[in-house]
Design goal:
- The structure is a single chain.
- It is built from 4 helices and 3 strands, in the order αβαααββ.
- It is an alpha+beta fold.
- The chain has a 3-stranded antiparallel β-sheet with strand order 1-3-2.
- A hairpin with a 3-residue loop joins strand 2 and strand 3 (about 75-90).
- Helix 2 packs across helix 4 (about 55-70).
- The longest helix has 18 residues, at about 55-70.
Length: about 90
């Protein structure tokens, strides 16, 4: 990535890889609250609106089941993330 940015004329390129965990739906959210958040606040949920109610209900059940595996009482549904933080000067 740095090579591409430098070739495009950027300087002082800084790339930091980081990973950790974030609570889906906010701190302390239950699996049910997390799936509701995903279905109502993210683009994924908007795409589901194009499908019949039974498909939407099945997706909600699958999400709740998945989030139950990552639920930690007092913390919420904690799922991992990995990102690159990139900065450069034009």
């Amino acid at each position: 990535m740095e090579e591409t940015l430098v070739a495009a004329g950027f300087s002082n390129v800084n790339i930091v890889a980081t990973k950790g965990e974030l609570p889906v739906g906010g701190p302390g959210a239950t699996p049910q609250q997390a799936q509701a958040f995903v279905r109502h606040a993210l683009a994924f949920g908007q795409a589901l609106l194009d499908y019949p109610p039974q498909v939407q209900e099945a997706a909600a059940a699958e999400l709740t089941s998945l989030y139950t595996k990552y639920y930690r009482p007092g913390e919420g549904v904690m799922m991992g993330y990995a990102i690159w933080l990139v900065s450069a000067n034009a």
